[in-house]
Amino acid sequence: MIHARIVGTGSHLPGDPVTNDDLVRRGIDTSDEWITTRTGIRARHFAEPGSRTSELALIAARQAIEAADCAADDIDLIIVATSTPDFIFPSTATLVQAGLGIKNNCAAFDVQAVCSGFVYALATAEKFIRSGSHRRALVIGTEVFSNILDWADRSTCVLFGDGAGAVVLEATDEPGVRAVALHADGRLHPELWVPGNVVGGQVKGDPFLRMNGQTVFKFAVRVLDEVAQEVAALANVPQDSIDWLVPHQANIRIIQSTAKRLGLSMEKVVTTVDIHGNTSAASIPLALDCAIRDGRIRPGHRIVVEGIGGGFTWGAALIDF
Ligand code: ACO
Fold first, then answer.
1. What pLDDT, on a 0 to 100 scale, did the predictor assign at position 103?
2. R_g over Cα of the chain
3. Would the pTM count as exceeding 0.70?
4. pLDDT tier at 299 (50, 70, 90 boundaries)?
5. Distance, CA 321 to ligand 1 centroid (Å)?
6. CA 317 to CA 219: how far, in whole Å?
7. Pairing mode, if any, of strands 77-81 and 136-143?
């Protein structure tokens, strides 16, 4: 039986950290106290204006390929999760493929599931690998969310940041990704969205992220522990065998509430929301890479990654690392 294992990770955060006080100095009507107590965010990173999502992705991808100890040409599938692609088309994945100089047979496409995008992309890549059609996938979450933030809307612009994270998933005999669960409820799309579009050469509608924060909060708290329990049941493993929860990094209060409902100590939860903010599809692979590189997550550990985002979409994967 073919399994899919994570064999390398990488990540990239552009520029210097921008603290909450820096935002106040930039003229946003907020305070470190408001942001920290409500969200746990102390800092985030922003790409230089004009930066492209694929540029961040490429740096993370090169690191992941190096950590996987393979060559770029060994990759035969690239899936990029992003809500802030370089262009309407082509996909950001094809730009990453070109940047890596991959000339061999390699499929490349984007998935769009907002903050759950990495989990959706990982689940897709895992199925390609398990089918036997592909052997080595590069799965990337990458965002320049600053491009869709309205700096006049203090209720959203303080929450997000830019970044990229990548994993290499390889075909092996040993179990790696043991279970995935994906969900969506499109009825809720106006609770968290960018309502604008390009029509007839013009931006039609609102080009900025809009969110009903309280609805998102309540929904996230309800589904994130359910979906973590779901993948443990699907994998047929006890919940207390989970070594690490690597959740989407939106808000420390959502993360704490999920951990509490799961009966998991916060010592078993990887959190980077304090230093990264919410980087949407990039947040899980960024957090995963941090915890692998600093030695917390080690070979043999059991991990659950989980996310929720616009759509709404949500999902989780249980992985033996
Ligand atoms: N600084 C200071 N005051 C602010 C700010 C700010 N940045 N933003 C809003 N306020 C004010 C509001 O104007 C309001 O003032 P008022 O009472 O005088 O009208 C007050 O703070 C309370 O506003 P609420 O929106 O009710 O604040 P709430 O306690 O709900 O917190 C927050 C807002 C942090 C967004 C919260 O709802 C939340 O975390 N929601 C989860 C959403 C989330 O994390 N989304 C991320 C994207 S989705 C995802 O990744 C899953």
1. 87
2. 18
3. yes
4. very high
5. 36
6. 19
7. parallel
Would you tell me how many other CB atoms lie within 10 Å of the CB of residue 109? 15
Instruction: Say whether pLDDT at 104 is over 80.
Output: no
Cα distances from 79 to residues 108, 169, 295, in angstroms, run: 6, 11, 26
* Atom 12 of ligand 1, nearest CA residue: 155
Contact (Cβ atoms closer than 8 angstroms) between residue 93 and residue 106: no
**Collapsed DSSP state (helix, strand, coil) of residue 30:** coil
Q: What is the pLDDT of residues 206-222, one digit of tens each?
A: 999 999 999 999 999 99
Closest CA to ligand 1's atom 26 = 214
**Of 214, 257, 258, 312, best ligand 1 pocket probe by most atoms within 8 Å of the beta carbon:** 214
Residue 197 annotated among the catalytic residues of the structure: no
Atom of ligand 1 lying closest to residue 253 CA? 39
Q: What are phi and psi of 176, to 5 degrees?
A: -125, -90
Contact 169, 6 (CB under 8 A): yes
The residue written with tokens 């007839």 in the block is: 200
Q: How far apart are CA 281 and CA 141, in angstroms?
A: 5
Pocket of ligand 1 (CB under 6 A): 30, 34-35, 38-39, 115, 154-155, 158-159, 192, 211, 213-214, 216-217, 220, 248, 250-251, 278, 308-309
Tokens of 176: 């790696």
Tokens of 305: 């990654």
Q: Which of 45, 248, 276, 290 is catalytic?
A: 248
